[in-house]
Design goal:
homotetramer; alpha+beta; Glutamine Phosphoribosylpyrophosphate, subunit 1, domain 1; Rossmann fold; about 25% strand; globular; transferase (chains A, B, C, D); PurF_N (chains A, B, C, D); iron (chains A, B, C, D); metal-binding (chains A, B, C, D); iron-sulfur (chains A, B, C, D)
Chain lengths: ~500, ~500, ~500, ~500
């Protein structure tokens, strides 16, 4: 909940779909894409784009992009326009860099000598400056600031284009992967296939699902394949979780099915570096990463927190809704009763209150209703998933006290955030992070709590990895190693950063 | 949660504010009104309107109305335009009757011989047909189908208007109350006062709050008074709960404070008839009615349900979010663990999917993510707050079974709805209600559950009234009697219906 | 052209249509109404409204209103919604009085004891204050500031409504006409008829047309009847001019044809008072009033101006486009060549230039291109149709001089405006009118012209009436008298004004 | 007027401005650009874009693009955002090619190794296919179908980019001009200068103006420089016509003034090929090309037409508004009186009438009012500027006959259009052009006229060139040759077309 206020956010979600069987397909590909994108909306709310292809030779692509939520950007007319596709990819975007907003919308589509390709990207290339310079030195003008355009130009650039009948895109993708180590989960559409690519560190998630017939859910012949930043999008379109794209893997998805083409290795000795904050905050709780449900990991974090930082209070509660799994975990582990103390006013959103008014001071109080009778006269431990700047938990504590809580303790189900992310997450500057401020020494006093404690980095890592190891042993022999990026907590980045 | 799908809904919310102290006030009345209205948004999403008055002689009124949510209807320019008011009333509306949408927006404002009045109404006049005819027979043309216009014309009509210096609006309001027994909670603004009126049966809620200085929350001199359909709106504007308007009471709210002018009695022998469904479903859980928090009543309903209809299962869960208090109550009473099995996709809203497509069949599944690992291989009792048509709980049960629930039992924290409401609630026709269909005999089979049980009417009434009696004894000596309208469950309407 | 800048404008246009033949009609009544309204758009651009009726017992009315131009207010969905009507009336509106914009949109529709009526009004009731008080004294609340609502309530009010099978609306209309002498052209729709009414002074125009089959233009059986503020709207819907509604006349238009029901007389000795500015400026040049084409009248004004105020110059030109007929008349009478010196930039409209900038000073120059080669080195007489505030002709003169005109003389094809209008025209306050300012003595110097002369009132009246007399003799025996309202020029109002 | 209906249209307009004097400038560059663009709106209504630069090292560019008219695309916020520029270029666009609408909006902006450049283009590269292939073979992906992007990539591509302090853009522009002969008028903005470039054939227009202080119009020190597709835009921003960019010329415009850098020659023996249809139809009448006002040329065309194709009628008239200069010329030459027979309904625009209705048949009649009394009983010659498909003049003739014209003769002030344009004009396919249909043999019968005659190609060319020769002799010694592109009339294209 802190994140929303503090401007921390995932930068993108990607989604793709290929209809199986005879083409033109009976499957409403544009609708599957739209619903899939809606289910990834929490990963980006600034713009949305869909590109579909009819898969013919040469293919016809249709494309629509718009600012705002998927529901805003895709009016019925736009969907109608896209309806003839047999496959397609789409993208939802959080923040805007570069000099023209809509132009930065993905997927990015370009004509090359070998035909039109479309690219959707989640992540952030750590060496994008050097790569941009390289591309421009070759005489290419770059029209947006997006990594997505950069990737398309890199794909087009090397090795030199020749007029071939069968262009070797896979070779070009492998070449791209040697140029940039991380971070990217990519969907590349060319005519009748989608290449799903994950960087060798597996920093950003990417999962594959099978689109099964709705009415006969367990029938053998599938109706299509989908690929998504998060598996939470599968259920809303009637798809079943199939598997993750592995770190470094290039997967080809076509009407004929899913085929692993290659797995590009990491430098010797490097571990995978899947973003641990996908577990802590970004992902939807029903998504599955590395074989485990995000909700379960958060619950384990709550249990671990109860072990590391117990409290002597009357009840455990949550800052709804994201901290609820951790709060329930804390309650289970501690044996304290779980009680709701706040209810959310889901209509608050944007009301056009002028900035410098008395009511502004109410701040976050506008967003929550206080369930007074549930805690008046009692001692409360409130579980939050993170504290970024510290200026939003503070009014909540005040509300609870005014409504009669005798003590308010804060337990945070993740360690303090101290470092910037260069791999796709939008984090406030180092100076804005409460953990880097002098006030952090007396954080409880600063935010008005009776006590504040955080989960340790070790506690978090073990809560995350505990579930994976068992999963690995049983299921995925190819998962040789386990590792997570904790850079924002520890400052240890998975690759050396160039400037 | 069923309600949203089935079209059951509250028809209105009303809110008013009077600044205390010197006028022109320093209080941003228009902003208080807007925020207050946002907190009542769950009572109506189709249109919103605000009317402010500067309170002078003669007064200047400013007004803005718009379709959609408050945030849509009130752009910054609109607020700017309203900013000079010293008092005001506002309204949010659910459904549209009559022949012109925006025209039916409230508050309704008219010029009378005695000056301009504005009226905001929550409820539905049981004898509106007869009253419309009466008004029209007097030679008045009615430009909307709304009760709100009808009320203004009735106020203007009788007794005959004369050019008086001090029109007796209170006499007119009393006269109105003799013409129509229920249901209405009314705000009537005239120049510098708001009259807050509740019908003798108290069918619709209405509460008063004190607007205290934000920065010095407990200071003596208040900054204003507010009046609202629900007390949940008080917190978001920094107001404190003061008291309810009593059934039949006329309260005058002015810059000088709150004054009870009169309490119109019910016919001998009639009990109050506050809508029991405000507790069951409509109200926000942090609102206070009859001295008790709605959340607490819902929790008691869950406990009562556990007593009346126990189950032998592994875990208790909820259809988020409205059934959660009842589910927690059921868990506490039964001793079963409370576990989340579904998470909500808050971005679903309106996506423009054509009606007759394959994806339409997915229905409610689009709205929920399934937290598989929390219940796979287990027996679940799912608490819902009501079942109206039965066509939305069904796909949820299917989802849970497919994800591995071995048994799914449904317990409903309210009795079956069997009868229409003529007092302000939008309910499907008798034929559409599942409780009136032949399938109801085997409701479990029909919706695919292992068992289905409802709370009894007696159980509901006792769960509601249990909290009031203690409240009454301790606090409100004037509350002589307790009674609730259960017409939609029992067919017993508080007054005889005319046709 | 001056008018646009100076805020002078017509206040309304009304239009109605009744399909002839079998109902449900094959005629697209809503489309005829929309196109008819578009052709009256010059009479009001602030809002538009259409109400249609299916003509059944009881009738179903459909209604749509919106702010802005017809093309903005009537999206395809709105038209679709209205499509089942067999008859309908509509309205386009210029200015907004009263406290709620959209609410003031016409037609005004009300339910009365005798059923629903809809009223569209062009004009302004001279005694509206007294009438409002009368209505309110009867106990009626008035929800808008519009005369249109006032008229509907007056129609409903007296004589007392009784539950009759056949309400006598005509008696009610006659009664209304005794209550208010002017100014109004009214369309009143009740179930299956439209009553077209013009006040006894005939101050505002109203004409009837026959809607003939498009493909067989001269066939006998018509497809419907239309009634409009101006006959210019007939051609755009394939209708033929039939006749004017006479001053004081009540005409009933139904599927069975057009029937004159009554002609209410003026007080003895009073002449008709058709607004002379309809000829001078407001009406479209192809409209017909009193048997003569507006363009022809304007041309005659130009000829008369050449007689009254000749010039010794090289060429005659126009401020496009409204002054062109007068300029051509001036050229014909004077024998001077007619030459264009300005071309209009039709895209200027609203560009969002901040008020206090250097470019603001360019003013009207943005709107016109100067055709330098046509007049450089020459003496020009520029014909304008009126000068209201004098601040727009001034930059044009400057433009012409800078481009090389050696002399610029201004001749105005109407007399100076000196008095306010209380009968439906929006005119700046007396103080803003250039003719009432001290500068008017040296108007030429003030605006930078070599000379300025106006048409005399006598010249204007004779140019207007010259065409009517011949028309009368030949065609309309019932037209006993000729007279025009020249109040804004002379201060002589057709009726005594009450305050 | 025919053009609008038939889809013939100019494809673009370009405009640029550089503030002179100290930077940051006091000149509102964004406002000058917006007003300049509005004055070019007739050259493209589908989208508009502005890019401004602060001119610093490195420069900051701000950019805004939008669909629709300038007034729609540039809301006040957009202008506010652009306000800090010291120079800028902008573009208005007619038609959409390529696969994403807004993406095709110009100016096109790219980052190159040498910094960011912005390009606005009017015209169409005759060899764009070959050039696209060349660029793509180099490994560049092209994200739009626009020539503008192609030009930026060509500029970036060759000769190879090196990291220089002072990149030689002029050499790159010269290189571009050797790659493609025509047609283009280009504005290229780089940091603090605008390069204005016209192809060696001078196919598209481009003029330079001096922005003088508004209040002291003749002062020596200018406030800036502007460059525009048409000089008509100068007046609306207070600029004075300076000169044309010559065919093949590269002009540098900076805060220090205007400097001619180079003139690239045409192949030996080739004449200039300025589009003759700019004179006939596209340009605004107050624009100046080759030293003469467009209006004057059109008038000469009318005179020439009267010589080539006289008629024995009572009056000459025009299809307003574009044919009016020719009609006045015809009247002057023939001695026949000039009379208006049609007036335009300027509000028609888009009304949402469904396609297959009775009213559709009314067609163009909706757009015009008939001034019956001006021509009833008379013989009319109607001057039109061109006939493309012949389906719009036809209903006009019918209207005039029905209103009483005894004869209707058509004279067209340009020759028949027979061939497609590949140099920037949107013309219907060869098959759709009336001049290529069998019906053309009896064109008068086909459109219902008493006679139809066209201006000859020779007549048109002499009417156009007559004014230039005298201008050349007197003013521009560098204009060695005169020539015009008449390809759409004669099939003689200025360069050989590649396929």
């Amino acid at each position: 909940m802190e994140f929303e206020e503090s401007g921390i956010g995932e930068e993108c979600g990607v989604f793709g779909c290929v209809a199986a069987g005879e083409w033109p397909t009976q499957l409403e590909v544009a609708q599957v894409l739209t619903l899939g994108l809606v289910a990834l909306q929490h990963r980006g709310q600034e713009s949305a784009g869909i590109v579909t292809s009819n898969g013919a030779s040469p293919p016809t692509y249709t494309s629509h992009k718009g600012m705002g939520l998927v529901s805003t950007a895709f009016a019925p007319e736009a969907l109608l326009q896209l309806r003839y596709g047999n496959l397609g990819i789409c993208h939802t975007r959080y923040s805007t860099t570069g000099f023209s907003e809509l132009q930065n919308c993905q997927p990015f589509v370009v004509d090359t000598l070998h035909g039109r390709i479309a690219v959707a990207h989640n992540g952030e290339l750590v060496n994008s400056r050097a790569l941009r310079k390289k591309v421009m030195r070759h005489g290419v003008g770059l029209s947006t600031g997006s990594d997505s355009e950069l990737i398309t130009q890199l794909l087009a650039l090397t090795p030199p284009m020749e007029e071939l009948d069968t262009p070797d895109w896979v070779a070009r993708i492998k070449n791209l992967m040697t140029e940039t180590p991380t971070s990217y989960s990519l969907l590349i559409m060319f005519k009748d296939v989608i290449y799903a690519v994950r960087d060798p560190y597996g920093n950003r998630p990417l999962s594959i699902g099978r689109l099964v017939p709705i009415s006969r859910l367990h029938k053998e012949d599938t109706e299509g394949w989908v690929v998504s930043s998060e598996s939470c999008s599968f259920q809303s379109i009637g798809a079943k979780y199939y598997r993750e794209v592995l770190p470094g893997e290039i997967v080809q998805i076509s009407r004929f099915g899913v085929k692993s083409l290659s797995v590009i290795p990491r430098p010797e000795g490097d571990l995978p570096a899947f973003c641990i904050f996908e577990y802590v905050y970004f992902a939807r709780p029903d998504s599955i990463f590395e074989g485990q449900m995000v909700y379960t990991v958060r619950q384990r974090c709550g249990r671990q927190l109860a072990i590391e930082a117990p409290t002597d209070v009357d009840l455990v509660s949550t800052v709804p809704e994201s901290a609820t799994p951790a709060a329930l975990g804390y309650a289970q582990q501690s044996g304290l009763p779980y009680t709701e103390v706040l209810c959310k006013n889901r209509y608050v959103g944007r009301t056009f209150i002028q900035p410098n008014t008395r009511l502004r001071q109410l701040g976050v109080a506008k967003k929550f209703g206080v369930l007074t009778d549930n805690f008046a006269g009692k001692r409360v431990v409130l579980i939050d998933d993170s504290i970024v700047r510290g200026n939003t938990i503070s009014p909540i504590i005040k509300l609870l006290r005014e409504a009669g809580a005798t003590e308010v303790h804060i337990r945070v189900a993740s360690p303090p955030i101290k470092f910037p992310c260069y791999m796709g997450i939008n984090i406030p500057t180092k100076e804005e992070l409460i953990a880097n401020k002098p006030e952090f020494k007396d954080i409880a006093g600063y935010i008005g709590a009776d006590s504040v404690e955080y989960l340790t980095v070790e506690g978090l890592v073990s809560a995350v990895q505990e579930g994976i190891s068992s999963f690995q042993k049983e299921n995925v022999s190819s998962y040789k190693e386990v590792g997570h990026c904790t850079a924002c907590l520890t400052g240890k980045y998975p690759v050396e950063l160039e400037w």
